[in-house]
Amino acid sequence: MSGLFSSTVTPTQRRQAFRDGLASDKIQRLPGAFSPLVARAIQDAGFEGVYVSGAVVAADLALPDIGLTTLTEVAGRSQQIARVTDLPVLVDADTGFGEPMSAARTVAALEDAGLAGCHLEDQVNPKRCGHLDGKEVVPTDLMLRRIGAAVKERRDDTFVICARTDAAGVEGIDSAIERAKAYADAGADLIFTEALHTPEEFAKFRAAVDVPLLANMTEFGKSELLSAQQLEDLGYNAVIYPVTTLRIAMGQVEAALGDIAETGTQTDWLDRMQHRSRLYELLRYSEYNDFDQQVFTYSVDSYQPTFTQP
Known about the structure:
Elements: H1 11-23, E1 28-31, H2 36-44, E2 50-52, H3 54-60, H4 71-83, E3 89-92, H5 100-112, E4 117-121, H6 140-153, E5 160-165, H7 173-185, E6 190-193, H8 199-208, E7 213-216, H9 228-233, E8 238-241, H10 244-263, H11 276-283, H12 285-295
Parallel strand pairs: 1-8, 2-3, 3-4, 4-5, 5-6, 6-7, 7-8
């Protein structure tokens, strides 16, 4: 990561790295980033990719995950996150923010933002959190039009279009499998199997579907929490931890604020904070200082501007 203000790894290179990872024998682990700084920490910790959750973008705006965020908000936040990391970034694009033509525009916007890929889901619009009851899915042919429009608009063939199916919790796992096969035939590069419950269900899905599969290991949901190794052994190609970092951070924030409100001081929390020196490492503070010293070397007295006659 030699660039100070943006990664020097091109979006196409990151997209190809994601595709290569999906085709490898190693599961691709993508923790969710609720900020660019978290994305920097994810890379520093040695993960294969970064995930941007629609639920987290909404929560960061103090909104529930019910389809209230806009394409502009999601694309803008995703671009900020993709800018600071060399890793491929996969983003949650909900239902495509509308119907098929909107899904096409969504893919164009997310390509422009430097993302490695996005996933589109087969819920009705507006959607609900995938691990809540009361979801509805659109007819298969409508989802096929969403995927088809997205694939048609894609300009960079390495951009990964993932199709998420929520049908297992609505129509049953057999229906979800049939939908996944149809979505792959329509051009989806990756299938997101939402809200499966047990290892047996994950294995059944894997046995029936030939394309790469992504598992969602979100906390407090319907899926049993499986390790990356367990999912790799089941044949899954990628796993996301969408809300984990936000939940950890907000749990600590609320506990600390409660303690400070009661005691009037944060001193008991010093050993649980990220130290300023570590923050400066993640921010690459010394590199910015070095750069500034190299370019900001003139003084007012010595600086003699030249003018060109018109």
